[in-house]
Design goal:
The protein is mainly α and 307 residues long. The protein is 58% helix and 5% strand. It contains 13 helices and five strands. It has a three-stranded antiparallel β-sheet. A two-stranded antiparallel ribbon has the order 1-2. A hairpin with a 4-residue loop joins strand 3 and strand 4.
């Protein structure tokens, strides 16, 4: 079992370009399932049947941690991982059958992405002291994330040669090594240029790498580091909200759609392979539209006056 798991993880590394996050997620799910099988006296993945799978799901539901019972999203992710694992065993190992093939995961409610209103975004971005090198770096980084709808993994892996200042675009390698080109507005370009010339050049004086956003030792930032810097600034402003890097990506998409951008254009800018993934932001905009309508229309609250 251990050998089959290791071969699958090696396969996942190849098709996902060695993503450490993807590898770790699959490894956690497989190890958890194999431990459950051991407790049930099962020593081969080929001996797993539908009843055992249902018992495993029941076991997941019965678990609880510091945050309470396991969420449906976590259970669904594990089932998806194991379904993929068995497809691999079928195709490359010769194992017969996939006990997860027809097992339905828990029904998931589609969550509306969290985003910042434009005035909140403006307040956040305007709060940095550009005379301070660290603050200038942070402002340039967060401005670019909002300008281009970048994932946090994309911003920390951005290289100098990915930036085309003449045309005002950046070349991004996203999930699955998908390439896309995204323009940035003039202010983002000016901040980026100022940071690279006056801050990065000083911090990277003895470095040869081309990573754009670095710390004071000239080393690239981590995704956790970016999230920490973002929350620290939000706390300093008294925003009273748990802010995270993906919120900037959500805000980017929502604000574009609110201002009339075509859905397929936003799909292209975000690097989504499916239009359905982008469509959730339409629902966000509709919710905002409804909220504004109910607040502004003189007869929207008529039922309250009739009671």
């Amino acid at each position: 079992m251990k050998e089959q798991m290791e071969r699958f993880l090696s396969y996942i590394d190849q098709i996902n370009s060695g993503s450490s996050h993807t590898h770790a997620a699959y490894e956690r799910d497989l190890c958890d399932f194999s431990e459950f099988l051991m407790q049930e006296g099962i020593t081969s993945f080929a001996d797993v049947d539908r009843i055992l799978v249902m018992n495993y799901i029941a076991d997941l539901r019965a678990r609880s941690g510091t945050l309470g019972a396991m969420k449906n999203t976590s259970i669904a992710r594990r089932l998806s991982s194991l379904r993929s694992f068995y497809r691999y065993l079928n195709e490359y190992i010769g194992t017969q059958g996939n006990p997860f093939a027809y097992v339905k995961g828990p029904k998931l409610a589609r969550r509306i992405p969290e985003f910042l209103f434009y005035d909140e975004m403006e307040s956040f971005l305007s709060s940095f002291d550009l005379a301070d090198p660290v603050s200038l770096r942070n402002r340039a980084m967060f401005e670019l994330m909002y300008a281009c709808g970048l994932r946090v993994s994309e911003v920390v892996s951005l290289n100098l040669h990915d930036i085309d200042p003449h045309d005002g675009v950046i070349h991004i390698t996203g999930k699955g090594d998908k390439q896309r080109i995204v323009p940035f507005y003039e202010l983002a370009g000016e901040l980026l240029e100022r940071y690279i010339k006056t801050v990065r050049s000083e911090w990277c004086v003895h470095k040869t790498h081309t990573i754009v956003f670095v710390n004071q030792r000239g080393e690239g930032l981590t995704t956790r580091g970016v999230q920490y810097l973002m929350q620290k600034q939000a706390d300093a402003l008294g925003m009273n909200v748990r802010i995270h890097p993906h919120m900037f990506r959500h805000s980017f998409a929502t604000h574009l759609l609110d201002n009339g951008a075509d859905l397929r254009l936003v799909q292209e800018l975000l690097g989504h392979s499916s239009l359905s993934t982008t469509q959730i932001y339409v629902h966000v905009s509709q919710e905002r539209l409804k909220s504004v309508y109910e607040h502004a229309h003189p007869r929207a609250s008529l039922h309250n006056r009739m009671e």
